[in-house]
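re: ur question from yesterday

yeah so i grabbed the chain u mentioned. its 293 aa long if i counted rite. heres the sequnce exactly as i have it in my notes:
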Amino acid sequence: MRTYIKSLIVLALFTLVTATGSVGQQFEGTTAPFRINFNARPDGAISAPELDTVNVKRKYYALLIGVEEYQDTSIQPLSEPIKDATLLKDVLIRKYTFEESDVTLLTNPTFEDLNVAFESLIDKIKQDDLLLVFYAGHGWFDARSNIGYWLPSDASQANKAKWFRNSALVESLGAINSKHTLLIADACFAGGIFKTRAPFNNGTADISNMLRRPSRKAMTSGALTTVPDKSVFMKYLLKALEENKDLYLPSEDLYDNIRVSMKANSTTKPLYGEIQNAGDEGGNFVLIQRKEQ
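ran it thru and got these structure tokens back, copy pasting raw so excuse formatting
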């Protein structure tokens, strides 16, 4: 009789599973619930839930900042940042999945302009979206206080009241509810954004894993050093984006491409790593090419 009852129970469960056909169906009982994973693949191929992390509806936003003219005549003007930011905007819209309406180009912004731009992103961006922030202009790192800064167009050499602190930048990036944020900074002393932890290069296994976990990463043209106005870093960043043939381009792969090129052609060493205290959980920003490419 017991054997007969067990057979009926097994048959009932099999019928229920076959009828629902659902992924990861959970059964509740008097003991702990259990799950049956119908997507287990012995060959390690991406299963349906993992594919969803690649195909989920998401938008790509970009805030591109170029500062080359300063109200304070004691701060030396630059000649390349706006051109570089404009070229980056072009390749992102033309080759990758950025819509022009979602890309903001700020030229010679003031301290207030920067704050307003980040506040706007906090209100606009949703939890599955991606954000790329680019800055080209003067940067400064105060070794005594261990504080890094961007210099907006209304910055004054005499005081730091309108210098944009790295800590304010980190707070803004942490407050933006994106799935992935990538900061690219082409400025002197840009490596100060990494603070106490050394930047690293540690790629995850596949695109779905990169997209599943939130990320807050930064890529900079150098460490705590000066960099030239005519940027070698920018040259190879644009080259890598233009020449990329892969549908999916993780930011770590983009960095590796730039790093190898600069190693042979520049004394400046670019850096890549997570932004501390901004919500990074080990994911990665992934650029996606437009299908018509």
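noticed a couple things. The first helix runs from residue 2 to 20. also The CA atoms of residues 70 and 153 lie 5 Å apart.
anyway ttyl
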